[in-house]
Amino acid sequence: MKKSKKSYHHGNLREELIEKGIEMINEVGEEKLSLRRIAKMCGVSNAAPYTYFKKKSDLLEAMSDYIWKILAMELAKTRKKYENSEDLLVKLGKTYVMFFCENHEYYYFIISRSNTKIDLLSEFSKIENSNQSAFNILKSEATKVLQKADVPNQAIQDKIIAMWALVQGLVTIMIMNDITYSEIWEEKIEEIIKSVCIVK
After folding, report:
1. Position 183 in a domain
2. Where in the chain is the DNA-binding region found (predicted)?
3. Which tens digit of pLDDT belongs to each residue from 144-189?
4. Does 196 score more than 90 pLDDT?
5. What is the DSSP letter of 32?
6. What's the rounded Cα separation, in Å, for the pair 200 and 186?
7. Domain limits at 101?
8. Is residue 100 part of a domain?
9. What torsion, rounded to 10 degrees, do the Cα atoms 115, 116, 120, 122 define?
10. Tens digit of each residue's pLDDT (9 = 90 or more) over 26-57
């Protein structure tokens, strides 16, 4: 699941600029991010990044969209693979957790954003962006399971938030260096999710 840090030249410079930008923010902070510095990291001219991004804010938006789009693709693959399984929600939860655990830099970037837009209220959100697309996969599948169990609509919303908080919390715990745990995290994720009765 973890993306390889290969060179993306020959038609994929935009992707490399995004990856290097995320790497730079994680290393030195957003205030030191610049299109010129990223160009140097990618071994291209100072003008090259401006073909794709007119200003720094355009690059930051592209970084966020890029990460959520990849996550949405991973969740969609999991949904297709386990669409007839009773453990679909658990599998989706594990996919979410492992995606960010295997891509720490993506997680640190996403939680640093103050402009992420996700609609928790609407059954069919009017927000059209990659982060909403990723969340909608989790929300739609959870809604199906909970409606089938005759859970009231307001409780469904609360449970979906709780599910999201669970997987988000697991990511945070798993990537902390000083957390001591007797088990292998990856082998325990599904069991941990199942132990919390929000998927019943």
Report:
1. yes
2. 34-53
3. 888 888 999 888 888 888 999 999 999 999 888 777 777 788 888 9
4. no
5. G
6. 22
7. 84-195
8. yes
9. 80
10. 889 888 999 999 999 999 999 999 999 999 99
pTM of the model: 0.84
Q: Would 48 be classed as within a structural domain?
A: no
As a whole number of angstroms, the distance between CA 6 and CA 3 comes to: 9
User: Under a CB-based contact definition with an 8 Å cutoff, are residues 140 and 88 in contact?
Assistant: no
The one-letter amino acid at 32:
K
Tokens of residue 111, six digits: 């939680």
Single-letter amino acid code for the residue at 195: S
Q: Is there a domain that residue 59 lies in?
A: no
pLDDT tens column, 111-133: 888 767 777 666 554 555 566 78
- How many separate domains does the chain show? 1
Q: Any idea what DSSP says for residue 3? A: P
- Separation of alpha carbons 104 and 101, rounded Å: 6
